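Holo model, alpha-D-glucopyranose. Inputs:
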Amino acid sequence: MISKGLESGFKRLRAFLAYNTDIDAVVRVSKRLEKFFSNDYRKAKNLQPNLISNKADLLAGILRCMESGIGDELEFSDYRFGYRLIKELGADELRMGGQAGIMSNLLATFGSEVIIFTKPLSREQALLFREGVLVPSPGNGLKLLPPEEAAHDRIRKVNWIFEFKRGDKLFDVTATGTTRFIVASRPPVNPLDHSEIEEYLPEIAERIDFAILSGYHDLKERYEDGTSWRKWLKKGKKLIKVMKETNPEILIQIEMGTTHKRVINRGILKEIVPLADSLSMDLHELSIVSGELGFEEPDRRKPEEVYRTMKEVQDKTGVPCLKLHTPHYFLTLSNNYLDRRILRKALLFARDVVSTKAIKGEIKSFKDLEISKRIRPSWRGYRVVKALQKISEGIYIIVPNKYVKKPKSTVGLGDAVSSSTFAVENILRLGYDREP
Ligand code: GLC
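Output:
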């Protein structure tokens, strides 16, 4: 049985999330793509794109990801390319995307009160939210509206997700891992511009227990109105400061995202992360972050190197809690953060959540989690636990994941880990798992 205490704890939690949501157009790699890309293959073989401007770039991105077996995310040079693909290629599925969107829906499914700030909020986007998610809207005082009522933007943000399983083939490339290639669109909107709710931030801060912030990696270096990323990151910094000043009791977690834009990564690490209580990422992001901070990228097959790099990132940014989620294990580093027992319980719960999501594709209720009891923790994860036993410096908690070999989908698994871990940390620190 999954803990009753946690089940009722979730219902007492109140969260604020921002910023990134989008419509994920999901395509599973299959023969159909060979036909679609038949004229692009020869060109794509020699490309190493950093930006996706045409079909050959797109194919090159997918093939490169399949070859390496490591998930990645690049951007469209023009967001409208994403719209055109809907007509030309068609998606297997359209669903909620963006870390803030995925995490909000999960928390709302477990019964928590969720307030989300996101831009652009189109009608199509709004329809992807689960019941219980509310959007702050300006009015006579703070109004919290169901997303459909608050949706005013005409621009839609559509990201493309090309998913594949280990062993899948596309032309002469065989996937060496089960993951996805994402192409994100950057419509002409400043996702971090929270001006319209600025005056209500203190009120929001008063009514929440924690905040999870993600999507800083969506920033562009320059905007159509002549402003640069600097201005918007500053604005993002202000949001955290106001919230923390109004309600010092809240905890804030940042979810790292994948971008290859160095200035943006550095800006996030320098300006945003030091203000947070917790930072969460996956292995690919850890490699990028360590490179940006001037450390050597860890060999992901060597757990001690991974640990050392995490320690360096934690020391350099000063963040009290650094979390890593990988397919086979989760690792939390703590420095003046919460009690170890809390951190461990949170990771144990997170693996039930993520394995349920991997099996079912979508979690519809707390009861769904029962299915995770059938999955055994990963032996590869246990090997990492063992390898780290030699480490004596620093406080860390490691838990093997309940790895599901053939997940329904891989997008959003990391978000499920991060948000459920952090939510449980908050439930336990606030005693919400006990009778009120
Ligand atoms: C990133 C992508 C988004 C995807 C999400 C999953 O935010 O931009 O498309 O849904 O990651 O974690």
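DSSP finds 16 helices and 18 strands in the chain. The chain has one domain: 4-21+98-155+187-430.
Archived with the compound record.
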